[in-house]
């Protein structure tokens, strides 16, 4: 069994996805170049991350991957639903768009959408985790994958859901872009831990029993489950590193504010420090 059994229908969906992905990469690079031309700073590593994410998605959709049918499907799942979205999100595309757009209607529209209540609740980490990991459990532990084998429209919907859910989850966990009243680091970290555990349990269950209504060779099924298990752990570690960097930066900012309030910083808050130095100099 393969994931895309009907030629001419699902490949059309893939072609649309690839076109959108290439256009997004071109728009990102163009906006970054516009910032640099006007003298603004935009790290090159973000350009590399976004382009790498787009390349991973394109490869997952239409590139060659090794292994049998289920192993190849697991590799594609790892690229399209996990690795690619993380690379796109850490490049902070929303921040770039807000900085590149001129003041006016389009920029206000993007801000209004990013700050809307539906987007806030959709980016609630537990909600995003249910959409992403819950969708995978529905796909692999029900007959949905078997039905997608026979219904091209359903297969195309699955192809669209995987990257969309992966982007939603990565955005909700990282929250590197500005959204109104972002969710706290403890909730995001706990959600990442729970989602990683649920994904690992799903992979282990597939190692023992394939998706209902499907038949794969035993070695193919087990190898695909291992790819899903260890590959998922690697992506979760990458997300955890993003959270660790954010925690480190937030701790540094809190320490700087505390130091300034204690009277040893610059400006009005540093008047106590100046008095201490003057007293020291006045001693015989």
UniProtKB/TrEMBL annotation:
Can you tell me where the transmembrane regions are?
12-35, 47-66, 78-98, 119-140, 152-173, 185-207, 227-249
Disordered: annotated segments? 259-284
Where do Gly residues bias regions lie? Answer: 264-273
Q: Which domain of life is it from?
A: Bacteria
Chief subcellular location: membrane
Q: Which UniProt keywords apply?
A: Cell membrane, Membrane, Transmembrane, Transmembrane helix
Q: Which Pfam families match?
A: Caa3_CtaG
Give the membrane topology, semicolon-separated if more than one.
Multi-pass membrane protein
Protein localization: Cell membrane
Q: Which InterPro entries does this one have? A: Caa3_assmbl_CtaG-rel (IPR019108)
Q: Where is the composition biased (Basic and acidic residues)?
A: 275-284
Q: Name one GO cellular component term.
A: plasma membrane
What is the protein's given name? Cytochrome c oxidase assembly protein
